[in-house]
Amino acid sequence: MNIIAWIILGLIAGAIAKAIYPGRQGGGFFSTMVLGIIGAVIGGILVTILETGRFQLTAATLSIPGIILAVIGAMIAIFVWNLLANRASS
């Protein structure tokens, strides 16, 4: 059941982040899901660092605050990906 929750969280967060972030990100169903899951991990790590001051691998859960964290994390992932892609093409 946990895997299904991750897939749902990934799809929701990835789709929202792609809709909010300016520009065209491309990709389909699978890349949107992976983007959201990566965003959940990034968001969970950032909140753990802010709350405890320690780096710990955590992730957001399938809840409203978890989705918000995953969207923020996914937007950070899109930003970093665009930076790396632009640097590689230059």
Q: H/E element string?
A: HHH
- Helical proportion? over 70%
User: How does the helix and strand content classify structurally?
Assistant: mainly alpha
Shape label:
globular
* Uncertain stretches of 5 or more adjacent residues: none
Mean pLDDT: 85
Tally of strands: 0
**Strand portion:** under 5%
Span of the ends, CA to CA: 44 Å
Q: Summarize the main sheet.
A: none
Note the total helix count: 3
How many whole angstroms does the radius of gyration measure?
13 Å
Question: Which structural traits does this protein have?
Answer:
mainly alpha
Description:
The protein has 90 residues and is an all-alpha fold. Helix content is 77%, strand content 0%. The protein contains three helices and no strands. The protein has helices at residues 2-20, 29-52, 64-89. Helix 1 packs across helix 3 and helix 2 packs across helix 3 (64-89). The longest helix has 26 residues, at 64-89. It is globular. It starts with a helix and ends with a helix.
